[in-house]
Amino acid sequence: MNQEIYEELLFASTLITDTKGESIFRALKDYFIEKAITLSNIISVATDGAPAMVGRVLAIHCVIRRQHLVAKNLSVRLHESLHLVIDAVNRIRSNALNTRLFAQLCEENNEHFHQLLLHTEVRWLSKGLCLSRFFALFETILEFLDTKDKISCQEDDVSTYVQHLNALYSDFESRFEDILTMVIPPWIINPYGDIEETNVIVQEELTELSTNEELKVQFKNGYQQFWLQNNIRVTYPVLWNIARKFLISFPSSYLVERGFSAVTNLLTKKRNRLDIISR
């Protein structure tokens, strides 16, 4: 086992019949059996929260997807602001000449980016990227659109922002309750500190671990790399089975969403018969 955690897209599969959670699990299980991968290697599972994915088999909601759902609850005022951003982006990106002129202006202004990003509701990761790029190029956008009017923050604007932040805080508390209430054993962060553990077996392994000077040297590289060592898994199986669940505490479907975006770019009208699964 390497001493770092890597994220990679494992496989894509076609669902022959329905798209229920059990069918998805069956496709995953068949792939694991085919590749001789034990299901016990699965630490956590992230889904987009669709009804078919919530139930007895798959029930963990992607943390980034939850952020997206929170972001959708914009106030009317801020929702209008978002549309102004999208309209400005579309005004530049929808015209080839404007796109080239804007890129030239960005180059003259020594901007790090020379192009704005589009946002679509289906590709929900695009909203944050679109807004981040818009903010990074804000001065150049104002110059290009020739709208350098003085912008001031009115008292009612402040009230709107405060109300929105309060609503966001409440929504975050509700959607991330499982993460906010998560209790991480202190010995996972620092197994060599003064720790009191009620579980006798865990306490015995912690005591033995505290006297292992060879492993203690590796702890200076951080607790994540420390727990990913092969010696830990073999010598201290009880500690490993507990610690590994917290090494990936925030499962996400980010790579899957990126994969869908890549496929969307590939499957144009001229290439809509490509079989992505077999490629």
UniProtKB/TrEMBL annotation:
PANTHER family assigned: EPM2A-INTERACTING PROTEIN 1, SCAN BOX DOMAIN-CONTAINING PROTEIN
Top-rank taxon: Eukaryota
InterPro entries per UniProt: HATC_C_dom, RNaseH-like_sf
Entry-linked Pfam families: Dimer_Tnp_hAT
Residue span(s) of domain HAT C-terminal dimerisation: 227-275
Organism: Acanthoscelides obtectus
Annotated protein name in UniProt: HAT C-terminal dimerisation domain-containing protein
Sample GO molecular function, one term: protein dimerization activity
